[in-house]
UniProtKB/TrEMBL annotation, chains A, B:
This is Transcriptional repressor. Homodimer. Pfam families: FUR. Belongs to the Fur family. Keywords: Cytoplasm, DNA-binding, Iron, Metal-binding, Repressor, Transcription, Transcription regulation, Zinc. The keyword Ligase does not apply. It comes from Herbiconiux oxytropis. Binds 1 Mn(2+) or Fe(2+) ion per subunit. One of its GO terms (cellular component) is cytosol. Fe cation binds at H75, E96, H113. Zn(2+) binds at C81, C84, C121, C124. Its cofactor is Mn(2+); Fe(2+); Zn(2+). Transmembrane segments: none annotated. Signal peptide: none annotated.
DNA sequence: TTGGTATTGAAAATCATTATCAATACACTG
DNA sequence: CAGTGTATTGATAATGATTTTCAATACCAA
């Protein structure tokens, strides 16, 4: 059976203090800076569990890293700052409907969609434009 | 200046024969099986270039791998079969507009969005439902 | 307490991707 | 066509994130 350890609680808690998505490595650093002696592998395991159980949302950064965040339970999407990670949860019934309709039109079943927007929040000055 | 090598052409060509997204490793294997002696690093470089120049689309698989595909030039999104990889290009002005509007409403600049739908195509019987 | 077993974590193992760097192949010139 | 400057190649080492190992440890039910 699943056990309760201070480590899991520490990860859950630390994730809650984050403003946006964080990587396992990032959360681990954060925990260490707070004096925790939790192991990196444990953070990876805890985050995977939280995501699995629906307590956390996870997504792949454009660079391919797995990022996690404690989010609301309902299905939603994200507006993420590429610089500071600030995340805004957004609902988009419009998009939900579009995804459903599109999948159906092409005969695809059990559709799941990935819909996230990355940009620079008002507090972050956009780096040198292309 | 940029040079034309058989390697680049081989990658471009091989990518064209794929019906869905492929990883660099996968395309390299495919090329080798066809008798090519192209190097893995070169495939990575060629794919990165093609993506850069807009000749190929790239996205992250749910497992975090970078996948590539020869796609049409205009901005579009994808409907991908989780089983056979079959990919359908879809346009969604509706979503483009929504993404732009949403980013703006929250003060985000230089927005980029990730919008893809994964499901099972009509030719693939959905595996055991959850 | 005690015993059975999840869980932990330091370190090693994976794996995809990138960097090295000497050798090679292009493109252009004469 | 030969000669030159340099972009490209590719075997291999290096990176970096994530996973696995596995002995030590912490949970928790009894
Ligand atoms: Zn979320
Ligand atoms: Zn920001
Ligand atoms: Zn495409
Ligand atoms: Zn299919």
């Amino acid at each position: 059976m699943k056990r309760n350890t201070w480590q899991r609680e520490a990860v859950r808690s630390a994730l809650g203090t984050q403003m946006g998505f964080v990587s396992a490595q990032g959360l681990h650093s954060s925990l260490k800076n707070s004096g925790s002696h939790i192991g990196l592998a444990t953070v990876y395991r805890a985050l995977a569990d939280l995501a699995q159980e629906g307590e956390a949302d996870s997504l792949q950064s454009p660079e391919g890293e797995s990022l996690y965040r404690a989010c609301s339970l309902e299905h939603h999407h994200h507006l993420i700052c590429r610089s500071c990670g600030l995340t805004v949860e957004i609902e988009a019934d419009e998009v939900e409907e579009w995804a459903r309709r599109t999948a159906q039109q092409h005969g695809f079943s059990r559709p799941e969609h990935v819909v996230d927007i990355f940009g620079f929040c008002s507090a972050c000055v956009p780096p040198v434009p292309a």
